[in-house]
Design goal:
Layout: H1 2-6, H2 13-45, H3 50-99, H4 102-106, H5 110-152, H6 154-201, H7 203-208, H8 212-238, H9 240-266, H10 276-318, E1 338-345, E2 356-363, E3 368-373, H11 379-384, E4 394-399, E5 402-403, H12 409-414, E6 416-419, E7 428-429, H13 430-434, H14 443-452, H15 456-461, E8 469-470, H16 479-491, E9 497-501, H17 509-522, E10 527-531, E11 543-548, E12 551-556, H18 558-564, H19 566-578
Parallel strand pairs: 3-10, 3-11, 6-9, 9-10
Antiparallel strand pairs: 1-2, 1-4, 4-5, 7-8, 11-12
Length: 583
């Protein structure tokens, strides 16, 4: 887990190495300063030797400047390493998500992915910077200060050894308790982000049903629960600070009492025992040793807090895409013919229910195919197998006479354009959205595709035309306009197969008919699969497929199905009597 995330350091490894090295230099200077101060007082001030005073003063200045230089360098390297590590980690996680298939994405909620890419990475960045600085500084400070204190007085140094086990035992007891609380807190954060995301995305529904108070209450509850968990963890950690200060003051009192007796007994003579200067150094080392322990405890706390984000980020990085290109892929799609041969599909290996059951279909290249069926009949599932958004569980699916699993994924999906049920536009201009279909499309090609999708007229009606800015999610265009822009975007790919998954449900029947007529005249060589709820949308198709409960129950032309299919008859006559209705 740690190794997988640590790979993200990459080009910043030298900064990650130099930061602790500089920190060692800073600590060495800080530990040296009390020794020089003791010598300055004992051999310079007490003995009134100005030469010693000047020499030791210069040494103090040099040590202070060196400590400052090492500290600044360490901070710069740590900052560079930490931000670089976070950048690489976010990049690797985002890149991994882009490679996921639909089944991979189904394992993680979108709110969880956002949390992992933001707050979890920020937490790991802070911990990493602390590790390469404080995790080196604290033990080094403990070791060097303790060695220096032992050189001055073994008797006084034994006081530290009596106090340190108390702090260590306390820390060992606190960490496991705090970890469980933080683990629960990060799960709560996922839930809170999910509530925020759902609320912002569905704000129109919330207002339409006057559910603002209920949504506010739901957010307040989860936010309060999260605050209570963090507060509980902080209360437990807060025990560490007063205990630490109690130990510091206990050491100060003990060293003052014992040290004063030793100074008096030695007559303040360096040759006879402890001096006043050395005693003052012991006070400094007391602060350094115990503050080092306190900082070390904070490092453990940060490591405890980051354990859950580390695991969550590692999970995302470890998730292997289950749909990838083969070793020697086919790099050309011959035509738009589609063959389903005994195809069955489950959404997961553990699923009891098959979404598709033994589907057998042959669709010739260039044909227009309509797909009808009730809600839950697996119409969308059927077409999502064609560009390998999911892989078949059993059987074989061929495009252009070749099993889709033998194609290079990019090649296959470049030749299959799909307009999903949920139309998505991205913030940016209309031109930028359209060029998702073809980044190199000329303005003439954009206009031609929009005319085929009956989108040109409403685009030119905007003051800025094709440069009109689309808000996030396409909130400043209507549902029908959004559908037509998505259809035009798909047409710009010039695909061999075009799939419209109920993509004209928000347009009127006249516009729907115009779009279908334009398709028939302008892209006759493209295989067109049209999922619809209106019979009128597929009535003139070369082949109509009727689906029910994951099975193909009937196929044929409009006239054939009117004679042979009870399901088609029921749908057709109900729409004729009640008027053609949309979903």
């Amino acid at each position: 887990m740690i190794k997988r995330v640590a790979r993200c350091i990459r080009e910043y490894k030298w900064a990650a190495i130099l930061s602790p090295l500089c920190m060692v230099g800073e600590v060495a200077m800080e530990v040296t300063i009390p020794l020089v101060m003791a010598q300055l007082y004992d051999y310079g001030v007490v003995l009134q030797d100005m030469e010693v005073v000047v020499t030791k003063s210069l040494q103090l200045v040099l040590c202070a400047l060196a400590s400052l230089a090492f500290g600044v360098a360490s901070a710069i390297f740590a900052s560079k390493a930490g931000t670089g590590f976070a950048k690489n980690l976010r990049h690797d996680m985002f890149y991994r998500v882009q490679k996921f298939s639909f089944s991979n994405i189904d394992k993680f909620s979108s709110a969880s992915i956002v949390t992992r890419l933001t707050s979890d990475v920020a937490n790991l960045q802070m911990t990493f910077q602390m590790l390469i600085r404080m995790a080196i500084r604290c033990p080094m400070m403990l070791i060097l200060a303790l060695i220096s204190a032992l050189k001055i007085s073994t008797k006084l140094s034994s006081i530290y050894l009596q106090v340190m086990p108390v702090l260590v035992v306390t820390l060992v007891c606190l960490v496991p308790v705090v970890f469980k609380i933080f683990d629960k807190s990060f799960k709560l954060m996922d839930r809170m982000n999910n509530i925020v995301q759902e609320n912002v995305h569905g704000v129109r529904v919330v207002k339409a049903f006057v559910r603002e108070d209920k949504e506010t209450e739901k957010f307040t509850n989860i936010s309060g629960e999260l605050a209570a968990n963090f507060s509980k963890a902080e209360k437990i950690l807060a025990l560490n600070s007063p205990l630490m200060m109690m130990c510091v003051y206990a050491c100060m009192l003990s060293i003052s009492w014992v040290g004063a007796q030793m100074v008096v007994a030695s007559g303040n003579n360096p040759l006879n025992g402890l001096t006043t200067g050395e005693l003052s150094s012991m006070f400094t080392y007391t602060t350094q040793i115990l503050s080092g322990l306190m900082q070390l405890s904070m490092v453990f706390v940060m490591m405890t807090m980051s354990r859950t984000p580390l695991r969550r980020c590692a999970e995302l990085l470890a998730e292997e895409p289950d749909i990838v290109s083969p070793a020697n892929p086919v790099t050309e799609v011959r035509d738009g013919s589609i063959d389903f041969e005994n195809v069955s599909f489950r959404y997961s290996a553990e699923a009891q229910h098959r979404a598709l059951k033994e589907v057998n279909l042959h669709i010739p290249s260039g044909a227009t195919v309509g797909i009808l069926g009730g809600t839950g009949s697996s119409k969308s599932t059927l077409v999502q197998l064609i560009p390998r958004l999911y892989d078949v569980s059993q059987g074989t699916l061929k495009v252009g006479g070749v099993d889709v699993r033998e194609y290079d994924l990019e090649v296959l999906r470049d030749n299959v354009a799909m307009v999903l049920q949920k139309n998505v536009l991205f913030s940016g201009s209309i031109k930028e959205n359209l060029r998702w279909g073809n980044p190199n499309a000329t303005d003439e090609e954009l206009i031609h595709a929009c005319k085929l999708a009956c989108a040109h007229d409403f685009i030119t009606a905007f003051p800025d035309g094709y440069d009109t800015h689309i808000e996030q999610g396409g909130t400043n265009v209507s549902g029908g306009q959004k559908q037509r822009l998505c259809i035009a975007r798909a047409l710009l790919k010039k695909p061999k197969i075009l799939i419209l998954d109920d993509s004209t449900s928000a347009v009127d029947t006249k516009t729907d008919a115009m779009i279908r007529q334009a398709f028939a005249e302008e892209i006759p060589g493209t295989t067109k699969l049209i999922i619809a709820q209106r019979v009128a949308s597929v009535q003139e198709a070369d082949l109509i497929i009727i689906m029910d409960n994951g099975m193909v129950v009937a196929t044929g032309t409009h006239d054939e199905l009117l004679r042979t299919s009870p399901i088609y008859q029921e749908v057709y006559y109900s729409q004729q009597k009640g008027g053609q209705v949309s979903e």
